[in-house]
Design a protein that fits this description.
86% helix, mainly alpha
């Protein structure tokens, strides 16, 4: 537990976010980065408005299901 207490969490978070941005940009280009940014904005909505996260899930899940089932 002493080793875990000394891990610099902030540095790990910055590394993980940088890694995700680089991989997304490399594999999907500008469109993927735009979608990633939009998803991040949607993810912040519950924090800013004090609502439930399930509302955001429905916001994303319903159009996906409609496309998947071709309705």
């Amino acid at each position: 537990s002493k080793k875990i207490a000394n891990i610099p969490i902030k540095e790990i978070q910055v590394f993980a976010l940088s890694f995700l941005i680089i991989i997304t940009g490399t594999l999907t280009g500008l469109m993927g980065l735009l979608i990633m940014g939009l998803a991040a904005c949607i993810g912040f909505i519950p924090l800013l408005t004090q609502t439930r996260k399930s509302n955001c899930m429905a916001f994303l899940l319903i159009p996906t299901l409609l496309i998947y089932f071709q309705m």
